[in-house]
Known about the structure:
Chain A has strands spanning about 5, 10-15, 20, 25, 30-40, 45-50, 55-60, 65-70, 75-80, 85-95, 105, 110-114. Chain A is mostly beta strands and about 110 residues long. In chain A, strands 2, 5, 6, 10, 11 and 12 form a six-stranded mixed beta sheet that branches. Chain A has a four-stranded antiparallel beta sheet with strand order 3-9-8-7, with no helix packed on it. A two-stranded antiparallel ribbon of chain A has the order 1-4. The mean pLDDT of chain B is about 95. With about 110 residues, chain B is mainly β. Chain B has strands at about 5, 10-15, 20-25, 30-40, 40-50, 55, 65-70, 75-80, 85-95, 100-105, 105-110. Classes of the chains: A mainly beta (about 110), B mainly beta (about 110). Chains A and B meet through strand 5, strand 6 and strand 11 of A and strand 4, strand 5, strand 9 and strand 10 of B.
Amino acid sequence: AQSVTQLDSQVPVFEEAPVELRCNYSSSVSVYLFWYVQYPNQGLQLLLKYLSGSTLVKGINGFEAEFNKSQTSFHLRKPSVHISDTAEYFCAVSEKAAGNKLTFGGGTRVLVKP
Amino acid sequence: DVKVTQSSRYLVKRTGEKVFLECVQDMDHENMFWYRQDPGLGLRLIYFSYDVKMKEKGDIPEGYSVSREKKERFSLILESTSTNQTSMYLCASSSRGLGGQYFGPGTRLTVT
């Protein structure tokens, strides 16, 4: 069975500073990887996804993530955050044989301070 | 844009009451999902459906059932609510491809 660990439950960061959100997964088979964002009182929105090819994936709102197969990680980064990036971020994994069924991490709450 | 709508944003129910949560998507997606979201636990899959009238249990199906009579509509049923079902419920849909899932705004259910 697959599992996803987000190592930080909360990350405070100052506006215009960089941020990195860590995600590690365990799976015995090949996987697809996703990052979602949830703004307050809203559903989840897809930020980016890794399916195959280049290990550096660019998403919306200036976010990017790097897939590292040997470390089974998919960390999310943004070089300069805005107040509007305050949200909860979820890493998710789907095993290639499982279609679109996702397993989510526990989430990382990002609080951007002025 | 894909739109996934959920019948209620907030619900308050008493223990033992029956609850229907309805989800509708407008993109002709084959797959639909119901999750519950609790602090620190992320999203946990309750049930999913790959086609009309088909359903499969997710990771935490106990205390829940589902119905999918039409392709665009997926209902979550709580036959007899309990306080441990107080949670945020999220519906999602996806195509058979690998585009990821599209989520509704969620229903916050409080059982007293």
